[in-house]
Amino acid sequence: MDGKNISLTPAEWSVMECLWERSPMTGRELTDALRERCGWSRSTTLTLLGRMEAKGAVAGDMSGGKKSFRPLVGRDEIAMKETEDFLGRVYNGSLSLLVSSFTQKQPLSKKEIDELYDILKKMEEDRDA
Amino acid sequence: MDGKNISLTPAEWSVMECLWERSPMTGRELTDALRERCGWSRSTTLTLLGRMEAKGAVAGDMSGGKKSFRPLVGRDEIAMKETEDFLGRVYNGSLSLLVSSFTQKQPLSKKEIDELYDILKKMEEDRDA
DNA sequence: CCCTTTTGTTTACATCTGTAATCAAATTAT
DNA sequence: ATAATTTGATTACAGATGTAAACAAAAGGG
User: Fold this and answer.
1) What DSSP string describes B3-67?
2) Which of A8, A40, B96, B115: disulfide with A115, CB 3.0–4.6 Å?
3) Which domains does chain B have, with CATH numbers?
């Protein structure tokens, strides 16, 4: 029963983005940052943090008057989980189907094409090794 | 104000999957299909259909006693929209970031690698043309 | 030490989602 | 024609989500 099975709502993503950039942050710092980025009131941010603490997405360390928060899940970790969900639901689990569908509407920049080639090449090297 | 700005919940996706496979379908056919696939009661399916009709995802044609439904949005259309949302939220809008992140955990099958190469090659041809 | 500000915690509430039960009109069978 | 079944529509209700006000304890200023 580890805490891997956490999923985040869009609003919770915004909170995590802050904490993934820098952590720990005090409640004050977070309310300021999110008032700025999302226009949220203090209450909103703190309510979100409470819920996220309850479900194990963040840890709140209350020491010395002020409470500070740090993430308990890595960005990669949950990005992965959400990606799997999404791919399964929308593209039947097929990454190449996603790519082909996406590129039919939005042509990729040269930079992205190059990056994708690099990824594929590297993967083949690993496979052959 | 066309109906493009529709997003589907996971449950609603299941309904659409049926209608994208074959359409139109009567309420009866849909309740049967979704009882089978998802274990839903008749009420559940019809409630979903009602909501989806209200938000313009499907059209219900009531003619000759029985009501039948057909999709008003294409699968590609909303797959695209959801993909953009997802990429923006999780991968900062970058497709290559998604691919690289994904492949670090789940190595792709040879088939998928080949498909991806094909997609890239085709895209370059289009670009050069 | 009192008054003000900051903080942490509780409570609130509308909307959305999943999941149905119920009810009433229409259809079908006997 | 009447009873049984099917069907469309309405109502229900709990849990998730977005968004915040209220309240109370703590900290800081004078």
Assistant:
1) TT-----HHHHHHHHHHHHS--EEHHHHHHHHHHHH---HHHHHHHHHHHHHTTSEEEEE-SSSE
2) B96
3) 10-71 (1.10.10.10), 97-129 (no CATH)
